[in-house]
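I hope you will forgive my troubling you with a question about protein structure. The matter concerns a single protein, recorded as an amino acid sequence and a row of backbone structure tokens. Please examine both parts with care and let me know of anything in them that strikes you as inconsistent. Here, with my thanks, is the record as I have it:
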Amino acid sequence: MQSASEQSEAAEPPARPEHAYPDHWEADVVLRDGGTARVRPITTDDADRLVSFYEQVSDESKYYRFFAPYPRLSAKDVHRFTHHDFVDRVGLAATVGGEFIATVRYDRIDDRGLPASFPADEAEVAFLVQDAHQGRGVASALLEHIAAVARERGIRRFAAEVLPANNKMIKVFTDAGYTQKRSFEDGSVRLHLDLEPTDRSLAVQRAREQRAEARSVQRLLTPGSVAVVGAGRAPGGVGRTVLRNLLGAGFTGRVYAVNAALTAETELDGVPAHPSVGAIGEPVDLAVVAVPAERVPEAVADCGEHGVRGLVVLSAGYAESGAAGRERQRALVRQARSYGMRIIGPNAFGIINTADDVRLNASLAPQMPAAGRIGLFTQSGAIGIALLAGLHRRGAGLSSFISAGNRADVSGNDFLQHWYDDPGTDVVLLYLESIGNPRKFTRLARRTAAVKPVVVVKGARHSGSAPPGHRVPVTRIPHATVSALLRQAGVIRVDTVTELVDAGLLLAAQPLPAGPRVAILGNSESLGLLTYDACLTEGLRPLRPLDLTTAAVPADFRDALAAALADETSDAVVVTAIPWVGEDGATEFGDGEVLAAALREAVASAPAPTKPVVVVHVEMGGLAEALAVATSTRPVAERGAVTPENRSGGTPTGPATPPRPAAAATTTTAGTSAATTAPPAASASLPVEQTPTPTPSAPAAIPAYPAAERAVRALAEAVRYGQWRRQAAEPGRVPEYEDIDEAGAAALIAGVLGGDDVDARGVTLDTERAGALLARYGITVLPTLPAPTPDAAVEAARRLGYPVALKTTAPHLRHRPDLGGVRLDLAAEDQLRTAYAEVTEVLGTPEELQPVVQAMVPRGVDTVVRSAIDPAVGAVLSFGLSGAASELLGDTAHRLVPATDRDAAELIRSLRTAPLLFGWRGSAPVDTPALEELLLRVSRLVDDHPEVVAVSLEPVVVAPRGLSVLGATVRLAPPSPRTDLGPRSLPRY
């Protein structure tokens, strides 16, 4: 469309000063089809690219852009579209392989639609997308980025004119989620968009991000063809090993070998071998690169120029090797993204997809794992090998496996996007050594955990630095705090890879427990007591163990387990078993298969799979293997209603995956074969048209553990996760308070940070301004008056009214009443003067102590409320009791901001010292509702104003009725960019 502003500029381009090139506007984005594009400002050097781009646009698209036939750009057009001041006139281009595939431009206009400068806050916007790239979501991505640029430059609204027939462009605007107005003028549709982000625009942006990133992972996991670049002519070597593994797994697509040393086409391991990807002459979806690091750029260029969609780079010698390697890794990512390719690696172990229609083993793992419903991501090849072996040994199967190495591009976040709605994955297991984007990880993990378990073990917890090759933001909060925040997001946080496997096995095979009540039964009283104690240690509620005695036979186990499953007083069952040795020394249970069949029969006879069953065994040969049958093939019984009471995995949509034929039946007792069918899930919560068709499933595997502590720990994690899922189904709310003055607080903050003498690192507010800011949010800080002399202390007490407190505020004595710097309940002048003399005589001069006088408040429990902005995880709200003991024990609870009413209640109750707030040993319970409201008001303040980087309220005395904030510290600083709220983009390199 040729707008009024463009027509005016075409006649006489105004001379305006140009600003420095804004390189922070450059970004890599994932498009709807999973490919990538580079978004960057258009510069004067782009004239030839612009002309070439325009020549490849159809006449129809040109007509839609200019409202008239416009076959070619004039010299004036090219000048106008490549010369920008980056303030009032801005152009962005999406590029692939260095060439334009789309452009967007805005021009600031006044209320008459003519070119204007600041403070005019409206701009006209226009797009042009090459026809070959329409439908990939390019325009939607460009709209996000040009809107962010416009907001940065003080533009609040976009105006656009679109021909009525240009439905695609109209849809780009209307689907963006911004507040908008539409009118029909002079034969065109006139759109006005308010650029202030809304809940809907953010939801639209994140939904598009999920679809695009999930699609980019799917392209890597489901290639139609794979080329192994660097497959040696002689057996052995990394490339040849991957080629052999691909073929051995039965990959269903086409496989090619590439070796630059080949002079003619030949074969390696029975597949076509070529000197380059270009020589293959057919499309290649995925390339596995296994050449020395210095030869990787050549291989990447060969792949990119011939349409390869993704890379798995096994080559080492990158960021893990030092500064030169880090620069080599940056160059690798930039090069691959310039061609629209995504990378797993470098220094990766590879990827695996066990789906029957793919069977991809593009890794160094010599064996293809059994098919199953566990998705596994690791950042370490060695840990990946160990996990694959451990899961295989215990009969578990995988849907997909990824070992990402340095994760320079594709990371755990991308795979969370994929697994979130992957119908073949019920449980997600992650081994992470670093988290590159913690805010995004927490957001994605919370969403995924709402439909399927996410279990995480994190390495490198105490080193204080990221592993070599990993780019991560520096966090200032302890590891324990990060773990608490992950648990808040629903992540099952474990400490070891053994616990990762233990929890994964239970969650993949058993339903979630409805509560913490645990039935224990078995043939060993001692093992039952150990299990009972382990349950108490983990916070579960065990019932009295049922001792079947050492004379019990498998039928006794079967009957006892069936009774426990039918008993409504328990939510889970732990079966303990030791071999029974007869009088002749023979074991009744043989190798464990008979007992396994009996336990399976009991589970199969239960009316519905509502209780998890785990087995603790000691020296029961073959029992664990027999119980693990069908773990790798058991499908979800239903895929529609996802509730903690049903299966732990699953997604809200999609039919159940049919079972593999081999798992249709299982041996139960005495050699009989019984086909088993999972009972239909309750579907009352689903609309009729969404109710999934029940699908027969394989018999449920029962996870077995060699120690009671391991079994109970896994069960306890399932209990806590089930509770979180139930609560997540009805999330809390962020309350509104009518007395909050958000505008007044913003004005106060702007006044402080707008001064010429403000430190760029921030400023700590004085007592008066801190109190004024907090008062805007309904938080009253009890006033304190300085007391530099005894007479000043007496005058302060007269103004405040007796009784009063005398406090020292020197940094080394602040909040340390145990050192004698606080005197309370001073009821008269003589008491105040005596206290003043004693304090200054023992602790130092008034100049050193900085004493103050404060009115007494009702007695209660001293607490501390804090909030701080952490570069890695964002705003965090913290709560604890005041005092050295709590600090030494680390008894502080944390929640992410914004906190809900449920978060505030849990924050208070999650402390180990919480009983002191609820009437411990006969004391009066304190006013916890008032405390919860204070926490929520602090959360709102920090969330509404990112310039508030730290708040500390100490002490907060919570009485049986009401509370008093006796001290407050507030720090302001210019806010850091929120990468999680800006336009979609990949991490910068």
